[in-house]
Amino acid sequence: MTSLTSHNTFGVIASCQQLITVTTVAQLQQLCRATQSSVTLLGGGSNTLFVNNPETVWLMDIKGIDVIKDRDDAVLIRVGAGEDWHELVSYCVAQEWGGIENLALIPGKCGAAPIQNIGAYGVEIKDVLQSVSVVDRSTGSRLELHVSDLGLGYRQSHFKQEWKEKYVIDSIVLRLTKEGHHQIKSHYGAIQSTLAEMKADSPTLKDIYTAVVQIRSAKLPDPNVIGNGGSFFKNPIIPISQYQQLLSQYPEMPSYPVDDLTVKVPAGWLIDHAGWKGKQIGNVGTYSRQALVIVNHGGADGAEVIAYSRLIQQSILDLYGIQLQREINVV
Ligand SMILES: Cc1cc2nc3c(=O)[nH]c(=O)nc-3n(C[C@H](O)[C@H](O)[C@H](O)COP(=O)(O)OP(=O)(O)OC[C@H]3O[C@@H](n4cnc5c(N)ncnc54)[C@H](O)[C@@H]3O)c2cc1C
Question: In this predicted model, what pLDDT tens digit does every residue of 203-227 receive, in sequence order?
Fold first, then answer.
């Protein structure tokens, strides 16, 4: 048995019978052709909660950052699934390539980034993703899928649903802007006030990156210090009529427009106002500075985390009539 405790940012106790590190596309293709049984794919384990011990785990570690097209206005890069996402963001900002600076400090590997269409501070990977290269699990054949075919939406993609057992992503292709063509996005969350404190009147890619790193470091727990998987739940999208009813009881409840019929309500606000922020039961708790993050205070297993999350779900359902959905992948 091989321990998976250091391979999941929650730090829950789990193990597998076989852990295979995948470093090349050829090895991945060969493994796909030779393996008929179920396999768990893992990048950085920052969006995975182990409740059961999987039999076989493939740890995605295919490396490489290659420029495949270099134009005056933009650059196309292919990035191996095993490259660290935040290191990629830092590298791109240093190269003056724009588009992912708002996504700094999101943990995990590049191959997992399209799985839930990672997003933060007004940007999602789908804004810059051109295509992904995948290997078909049943045949070992390799194909390139265009971003428009991936079903990317708010924290979702076909990979999370109907393609769950179908493909392994070996690399992603990003289209990034070059100097003079950047679209700086500073309107979201605390970016503007942080830029003002930094006295960055005409913010550069580096300024946005620095502001995001600063905000996230202050707000989110570092998994190296306290086990967690980031946001445990998705922000619920509810009918406007339901939101208006809730407003009469909770006039300060925030929302973001989605379309003519629905709004998105911050799950962190709901959980915070239900009194969960900073709570702890046994080894599991809710982070004191961000109620959307469930933390492992040490020694928790996946079942304990799930049991705690169900208490939150029930309390939110009782209080607001809203069913919270998990963002994290449960294995
Ligand atoms: C502190 C913290 C903050 C976070 N903040 C954010 C945030 O702001 N925005 C956001 O969107 N997310 C956030 N997350 C969640 C997480 O960082 C992202 O979902 C990240 O993309 C997960 O990458 P990973 O490599 O760790 O994925 P893993 O947990 O290893 O895998 C996630 C899923 O993808 C599958 N998978 C992994 N690699 C592949 C592959 N190559 N091909 C096919 N399937 C694969 C796995 O089987 C699993 O189902 C945060 C997490 C933490 C701990």
Answer: 999 999 999 999 999 989 999 999 9
